[in-house]
Write a structure and sequence with these properties.
heterodimer, A: alpha+beta, Alpha-Beta Plaits, about 10% strand, elongated, B: alpha/beta, Rossmann fold, 2 domains, 4-stranded antiparallel sheet, 7 helices
Chain lengths: ~300, ~240
Amino acid sequence: MKIRTVRHIIKEGAINSYRNKLMSLASVMIVTATLVVFGFFLLAAYNLEGNIKVWKEAPQLQAFCYEELDDTQIQKVEDSIRNNDKIASYYKVTKEEALQRAKEKLGKSSELLDGFGEIFPVSFEIKLKDTAYSKDVVAALEKNSGIKEVNYSQDVIDIISRVSYWVKLGSSFMVTMFLIISIFIISNTIKLTVFARRKEINIMKYIGATDWFIRWPFVVEGVIISVIGAAVAFVISTYGYNAIQVNFSQDLVIASKQLLTLSKVQEVWSQLALYYLLIGTIVGTMGSFLSIRRYLRV
Amino acid sequence: MVELIGVEKTYPNGTVALREVNLKIEKGEFVFLVGPSGSGKSTMVKLLLKEEDVTEGEVYVNGYDVTSMTLQEVPYLRRSLGVVFQDFRLLPNKTVYENVAFAMVITEALPKEIRRQVPMALALVGLSRKANMYPNQLSGGEQQRVALARALVNNPALLIADEPTGNLDPETSWEIMKLLSEVNHRGTTVIVATHEKSIVDEMKKRVVAISKGLIVRDQEKGLYRDEDKNCPAYN
């Protein structure tokens, strides 16, 4: 295909979508809506994923020994942890370190704790080989006579992982529905253009235009519509997300006890743009082809 | 140039449009295809353009084996011919110039070629001064001349006109016919399907008469209706 033909086809496609303003606008809007919804779920999933990754790197269990244990008893507890093959690694928090951490938390009033080092128990921060082992390991640790208490954040992580899973599943479902609707609406728009240009198409056939010479402008029309829709959706979602991130990120961190944080818009926009462009183009092309196959018998 | 061998055409609804048609048209001929509505002349034109397929027989046009060609080849067959219709079939949102140029655009012709050929075609039909007007600003005769310019702009070896004067008054019809005749003098083979008796009678060209799907008469310098009263009448 020659460059001037490509130029002609793009021009015709643009004219098509302009001439059919109202339907084009409706299609742009539905594509925008679809992509904004998609973007909402994408960003939610992205943030949840990011947080889950952070939690997974953090120790999953913290086992506290009785305060009064002596070194040999502590050594016994440590041995049992080391020998547990479901544990990937552990970190021993000594009494001194525990005191230090507590002082850091208190900040200015840390001198209050001076001389109280003995009341802090030795603890072990434990990472598991697989989160699926958490119940077994917790049970084993709790049976150990030297261990007073096991702190276990896995429950929360599990819940959030599950939420994340459902968010992903639900969003895939909703986004698929929206995508199908978008494709149909675009294809309907193209159908109207095809009908509006029936005579013209017929004439083109008689003077010897090839099928693809006739078809391409309609594909271009679909792509133009959906790429405009994608651009609008991109502007809406990045501005919207930025506003949420700037205004509510702090509140969310506090409300979730530091479990949840929101990524900055700078980290997410490129991914969003890529997805939007990709989905926009695919939706536009599919919508066009659907119409062309059905209504453009050339 | 054009050859139909044992052509039969039956439409899916059972209508038999053409039966046992044998016709040969040589290069440079001017042929009238005459007959009343429903006689099969439109079907014959459709077969030549491969708008319809034959039920039986063979069709050759411009060196193309129309019967066995694939759908992908059809546009190239059509580019090798010029076609003019009763209803002009111009693009309403394009100017006269653009309408004619469009026939070249679709063949991916060079812009330089287009700029050279289109004014020539418009000059031939006498519409150079109206190049920038839109079809709805022109009279019927002028519109048909634009269609003719479009049909001729790619220098086809064969021009097919299907009732080219059907929508025109007698005087304008004559202008179009004179143009077609001139085109023929320049070497283009011309086939005109018509039922304009006066024109056919006056022009004294080869006349192929069709009735009820059969070629009933093929006559050099013929008339619309044969003098021979034994011949079937077509009214």
